[in-house]
């Protein structure tokens, strides 16, 4: 049976089918190396019509299809399940920048375009594509849209959802919807593209997208500031928003232990400030006027923050290299955590006003489950988004790590209960994938889960696309 399927696939998609074990291996395991699946083959179509043909082939043969971009997703959504009765779809050969229209401020690219190449194409046209995240050298535009990726500039420009004007999508029955419109206004009924954005490949294959571009800033200012507590960070955000308004483009919180971890694991790293603080904020402004205007506004903000006692020390980057060094600390956090050992990760969002209260309550809840646990907090606080990661107590042995792994569900539940009590979300930007598919139902209303299941059933009645992800198998 498996042999016949492979023969049929090879015949239909000559030269675009990868079955070699070694070549397939990196596509079967996710970025965090938590999930490994099995698959008949990986197929790399070259045109939208090939994708449609592959989708129809899957429908005819009852084979599941797992779309995969850069495989940088953090919730196990991009790797196949272990049924072995599936195909991985990669758009690696569909990565062209199709059109850049600087007057309409839009860019159209195929779904397999790597995010950094989209940013570069926009820059060559004198424009900015503001979606920016640590994995931008390998994640793809379609992956970003399918996960509704956030990143470091959501505060000013919004999530991937807000940046998208049009999509081309292959539906589970093989039909192609060409919705590549670059319009800011189009009230002609339901906004269908929004259904596919953030759907994590469960409703359609995104083969191309038209996205918004923006003017490039004339000057950027970056500061690394020590703050006495998380409550002060929230006050600093409010102050920065009133002093800088739309020029404030990034506002990241990093806890003292998280900075210490990076300094320990990143060769040559130095703290930008001398003061050791419980929390730090990395903030950035993008000014439309000029360097002098940007500097004056930014320095006025920092002076006001010192006066209010919500900043105790700060360094303002005096060069692009220094700004990059500040950001390197932020971007190195996931790597430093990996080097430190296993941890239980959470990606939550809250009303910004409740962040300080959450950190206090969640910290107490975690200590009740795992006394001595080390908590590393960082995230896009300007968007109310925290990465809240729990590690075993310092000096733990293998036995303690096993115990932590065994109580992972209890730890997460303790945190999620605090999140839910504050009307937050248990997945801010990483999505549901397979990691949270059984948890999410406990934190959404039954009517929400029922609507999601009906939408999945309507689009994909045979359950071909990414089965068991986002919505539990029917
Ligand atoms: P993949 O991981 O390959 O796939 C992700 C999901 O999209 C899967 O469900 C997959 O099936 C689906 N998919 C992929 N291609 C298609 C397609 N053509 N059509 C339909 N569905 C498709 N995320 C953030 O939001 N903000 C961050 O700041 C951030 N920082 C990160 C930093 C690092 C170091 C890493 C490793 C990850 C980070 N992420 C972040 C997560 C990740 O980069 C994003 O989720 C990214 O958008 C995934 O893109 P990808 O191309 O790698 O998609």
Describe this structure in words.
- There is one protein chain.
- With 474 residues, this protein is of the alpha+beta class.
- It has four domains: 2-90, Uridine Diphospho-n-acetylenolpyruvylglucosamine Reductase, domain 2 (2-Layer Sandwich); 97-215, Uridine Diphospho-n-acetylenolpyruvylglucosamine Reductase, domain 3, CATH 3.30.465; 219-334, 2-Layer Sandwich (Alpha-Beta Plaits); 341-421, Alpha-Beta Plaits.
- The chain has 17 helices and 19 strands.
- Strands 12, 13, 14, 15, 16, 17, 18 and 19 form an eight-stranded antiparallel sheet that branches. The protein has a five-stranded antiparallel sheet with strand order 5-6-10-8-9. A four-stranded mixed sheet has the order 1-2-4-3, with helices on both faces.
- A hairpin with a 5-residue loop joins strand 18 (374-379) and strand 19.
- The chain is globular.
- Bound molecules: flavin-adenine dinucleotide.
- Residues 31, 66-74, 77-78, 91, 111, 133-135, 139-140, 142-144, 146-147, 149-151, 200-201, 205-206, 334, 429-430, 466, 469 line the site of flavin-adenine dinucleotide.
- One of its GO terms (molecular function) is FAD binding.
- This is D-2-hydroxyglutarate dehydrogenase.
- Residues 35-216 form the FAD-binding PCMH-type domain.
- Its cofactor is FAD.
- Keywords: FAD, Flavoprotein.
Keywords:
FAD binding; Alpha-Beta Plaits; catalytic activity; D-2-hydroxyglutarate dehydrogenase; 474 residues; Vanillyl_alc_oxidase_C-sub2; eight-stranded antiparallel sheet; Uridine Diphospho-n-acetylenolpyruvylglucosamine Reductase, domain 3; alpha+beta; binds flavin-adenine dinucleotide; five-stranded antiparallel sheet; single chain; Uridine Diphospho-n-acetylenolpyruvylglucosamine Reductase, domain 2; 4 domains
